[in-house]
Amino acid sequence: EPNNDAYSFLAGTLNANQVNARALNLGVGAQAARGELASPDFSDDAHSMFVREQTGGSIEIVPVDEVVECKGRFVVLKIDVEGNERGVIVGAQKSLSDSTGFAVSFEANKTVCTSLDQEPNDILKDLSKFRNIRAVVAEIPEVTVDPDQPFFEQVSDFPLPEGRPVYNIVAITE
């Protein structure tokens, strides 16, 4: 978690609940770099911030593969990077390949996807290169996502509550 406030909260929550995991105060991506927290043009909400690569930036960016060992383990990866999900997957290739299976969760925000010209199902296609997966939307678990159909068309009959513009997609190995 690159946001210092969110990192402190995360680390405290893990500790208070005696979770066998560690929080890291950094960003993740396809390769090692430096960056800074930035807000998108359409929002100044802290939850919309993302890490923008910047030479000499105050935030360390690393590939997931450099900070975890997943060989022989089931991997749970929650990605919340406001548009750099595919970069995180690239940086987690070894972890996902060496795992016994995985569950990967990421957000599909239509505003973010439209502004970056991205399709959430491209992330699912990237994940299916490692193993067969099944993908569902956490808010509407009866909907199985078809990676070959535009995502937002598949959920158009299931609008989110006002003020909640994000679907959470969960991809699980079969």
Taken from the alpha-carbon principal axes, the silhouette is globular
- Residue stretches low in confidence (pLDDT < 50, at least 5 long) are none
Structural class: alpha+beta
Q: Tell me how many strands there are.
A: 9
Strand content: 25-35%
Distance between the termini: 29 Å
What's the mean pLDDT score? 91
Order of helices and strands: HEEEEEHHEHHEEHE
Number of helices: 6
Helix content: 25-40%
Strand order of the largest sheet: 5-6-9-7-8
- Biggest sheet details: 5 strands, mixed
User: Mind telling me the C-alpha Rg?
Assistant: 16 Å
Task: Tell me what you see in this structure.
By secondary structure, the chain is α+β, with helices and mostly antiparallel strands. The chain is built from 6 helices and 9 strands. It has helices spanning 4-16, 85-91, 93-98, 110-116, 120-127, 151-154, and strands at 27-28, 33-38, 50-53, 59-62, 74-79, 101-109, 133-137, 140-144, 166-173. Strands 5-6-9-7-8 form a 5-stranded mixed β-sheet. The longest helix has 13 residues, at 4-16. The radius of gyration is 16 Å and the shape is globular. The mean pLDDT is 91.
